[in-house]
Amino acid sequence: MAVAQYDRLDQYLRVVDAYMDIVLQNQMDNHLKTILEGISKRSCHKEIHEDELESLESILMKLLSHFTDLNDVLALDHFLEILDVMYGNPRSNINMHILSMVTRTGYLHDLSTIQLLFEISQSLHDGIDFGSMKDDEYQQPLRLISRFVEMVDYGTEMEQHLMFLVECRGAFGSINELKETLVHSSNCLAIKALKDGRKHLTFVKSCIAFSEVTIPSVLEHVVQFNLYIETAEVALLGGLVSHSDGLVVSAISCLECFDLTDGSRTSIDAGGMLSSIQKLCSLLVMFPGNPDEGITRFPNSILSLINSKSWMTPRMKIRLFCGIILLLATLSQNKLPYYPYRAEITGNDLLFFGDPSYMHEIAALSECVLQNLISFIEQEPPKAAHGTMALEACNCIASAFVVCQDTLEVCWKLIEIGRLCLGADDRYLQSTIKYLNEQLPTSEKAFLALGIE
């Protein structure tokens, strides 16, 4: 090739860059091999200047854009040698393009490719100046690194996969988003091991321990809370009750530290937190109670949070009151609706079968929550949203308790609030009355209908 006459790297790169598209489009593989060999010969063992880096970046970008499979690029002679001589922003741009390519093509199984991409990710991470760059400038490379870690799959070599996660935590500890990915991946490994039977129980404990160590370093409290609940559920599925108990304690402690200082974030974070706490209530159905610490200690902790946190919106508080009521109603059943995956964990329906103190503790807390709920609703100003919340509470109470005279009086009070705020013709009001009627004897149905008229 005529380009071979240029001995200086800068001249050689300018000519190659000009003809690179033609070489690639016409599949001139022999010429491509000669070009890469020429670049390697002229660039290795010498200092690369900025103008040469720009030309190299342009050439490698064209090369990467031409191929759809990264393995085809890696198979080219001298590609990795050329990549190694690059530095600064041009190197980071090439690294990001490589990670972008590979994370679009499915899971990564090849060990040598995983190791190479780990080193590329390290180079990209080390090249980020967190002090001088704006947040949006380094978010893309951090997302690509997190995506790479998420796409790694060692198959049956689960121990090796966990060691990879440990290595990533050490190498990329400053990436907050990655910590969430690491915990998800570790929990997925634990579930995968559980499906394979008890022979991997020690490995499951290692996965849970990895998550327990990683979660506290996550900055966002909402994310941290969700990861605690997720890991607690995985631990419970593995029969690790003490681990699960400690994770729920940590989750509630995380809530106690949670606060909102930016009003623009309130609706987003409060809405997400509501869903997360409701999920916790669902998890607690499977949780075996501990008489020494109080059977209802976790519902009690949630109740204390509702009454002490100013960032909780009125709707959020009412829904959480309802969530606790439904949890307690479920725990009072003779047979629980669902159980942990592992049969050796006994549910509260069997643990406290026929124990009057168990039912007394649930009844006492149910009465306390109900009083809190009614008192809170009565304090709210009479607006349409207030009426809707009153009807939500009424539906919850009617579904959770046997509708006796005392329950009916509470429901009637809530329906009256709904009528005053929404009007007698409101469809939600009418459907609530219909549902309540279905739970009542005939004489009381007439009373309810007469009262609303």
Put the structure in a nutshell.
The protein is mainly alpha-helical. It has four domains: 1-86; 104-219; 231-354, no CATH class; 380-453.
Q: How would you characterize the overall build of this protein?
A:
- The protein contains 22 helices and no strands.
- With 453 residues, it is mainly alpha-helical.
- The protein has four domains: 1-86; 104-219; 231-354, no CATH class; 380-453.
- The longest helix is centred in the last third of the chain and has 24 residues, at 356-379.
- The N and C termini lie far apart (96 Å).
- Its main location: other.
- Belongs to the VPS35L family.
- It comes from Salix koriyanagi.
Keywords:
22 helices; 0% strand; 4 domains; 453 residues; ESOPHAGEAL CANCER ASSOCIATED PROTEIN; endosome; protein transport
